[in-house]
Specification:
The protein is of the alpha/beta class. It folds into 4 domains: 205 residues, P-loop containing nucleotide triphosphate hydrolases (Rossmann fold, 3-Layer(aba) Sandwich), CATH 3.40.50.300; 60 residues, no CATH class; 211 residues, Nucleotidyltransferase, domain 5 (2-Layer Sandwich); 49 residues. 38% of the residues lie in helices and 17% in strands. The protein is built from 18 helices and 20 strands. The strands form 4 sheets. The chain has an 8-stranded mixed sheet with strand order 5-6-7-4-8-9-3-10, sandwiched between helices. A 7-stranded mixed sheet has the order 13-12-14-17-16-15-18. Strands 11-19-20 form a 3-stranded antiparallel sheet. Strand 6 and strand 7 form a beta hairpin.
Amino acid sequence: MERFLSRCSIRDRDSHVRIPFVLNYNQKLIHQKAKEQYESGQPVRILVDKARRVGVSSWSEGLLFCHCLSLPGSHAMIAAHEFKSSKALFSIPMGFADSVPFLNIDAVEREMRFPHPSSESLMQIITAGKKTSGRGFTLSALHMSEGAHYESPEPYISMLPAVSNHRNTIVIIETTPNGMEGEGEPFYQMWMDAIGGKNDYIAVFLSWTDDPACIAPEEMAKDAPIDEEEKDLIKRGLSRSQLAWRRMKINSPECGGFVDNFHQEFPVTWEESFITSGMPAFTPEEKRWARKNIRPPKWQGFLERRLTGAWDFREHYKGDLRIWEDPKSGHYYYIGLDAARGEEGRDFSASVCFDGNTGHQAFTYAAHCVPEHFSAYMNSAGRRYNKAMLNPELTGGYGYNVLSNLRDAFRYPNLYYWKGKDDKVAGSTTRRTFGFETTGHMRTVLFETMRASIREAAGTDGDYGVTIYDEQLASQIDLSTRKDTRIDVEKGHDDILFGAMLANIAMKHWAPPRNPNPSRGKDAEEERAALQKMRDDGYVVEDDHKHALQRHHDKIARSIKSYRSDRELEMEEV
């Protein structure tokens, strides 16, 4: 395909001169994905979330053109969201046909016929959004252009079923993002299902940062970085020329001076691209800290039950349990439990564990398991992590099953119980209300407490607050939104975040000592004696004051080093 298309011509997007169609970086990337899917024996099914002007439409028309040219009897359809877009798109295969007149392709305004000895092939273009779009067709290839901008979900309902599951079929849905609701919801739901492995599509994100045309004179950004986002972009490897282009675009009529508009039109990550009509629940700074420490787990696998009734860990790269830190002696742990029904295709039963002494994430568990199994898993995990405090969410009913199993069947010794106003235990002093009821007000409390912990960590470089390691948790933080007075996460994608928020609020209500070397002396005199004995025996012991002083010294040293680096860079520029 690449060799054939390189002998066809296409209009250059900048000079408007016809040039040979040689695939650019982004086109080669998506072409490789399609090639790998086809060679694995699967039909080509690709979703593309992209920045503007990366060339996906041109590549898609080229693929459909070659499909009709090589397979007799094929029927390819291009669906555009607007009439003027359909004409522009169809001019691409028309140009290909003009480049190879000897093939005798019959092209008219909205239709192209490819002669074959047995049966001719057909390529058509329609404007999506009409209720009749796609109905009655039997298709072998479909390109849905700007799939997040259709007026209704009708094209998805009518056109996708028209393509069979035969290996030689193609479906490409590409778009610049249009939020998670309204017109953009069908694409967003398909995208999230692809990310979660719930459909047969490959999710491909294409960023403006890979486009060699997205540059401007670097003198326009000679003072970079001027904020935290530019610092992050430089760490990603962006040049001053790219930062200059970014600044120019933000201040252009396209974005109107709004950074969020730039994030939607020219995203760096797919999470960033799905800006909704509502406000994000977390600020950009909070999201950046949530992502700052993302790393792969040190261990991933499944929990399995022995014949004796004990639970074992089995390592597997697709495991439901991901562990970053093993339990540490003397540390307090907190686990939030968000139970679900346990059916495939619905919410996960999810839990997140934080080390209360450091605020670091210890593990994430997320699986389609029924409440009875979930409570058994969490009983085992909680006991392993020093009898961690378990905080099950009760609203919806599934959490009550988990709570009753933990309390009555397993007699778990450390369950969260509610603290009311002024941190007084609700009800009488002899009765405790276990678990967490999520009313509308308390939902907001969960989010705001989580935001406070993230800000606390960002302000102290992780000395306090929470430090997140899980990519999935960070993604759910990115996608949470604020609507009027309600804070929410798109349905089906809030389970891990809720587990984290439940663990975090338990840690806030029943806070442990935040001391890297906790001592268990009954009074100050015993503590000093114990520390002195350890020193006499040759152990190196850091007390609180020494440890705090060392941290302060290290921070000052880093600041001086950073200042010197900036000054050296300024001197070089001068």
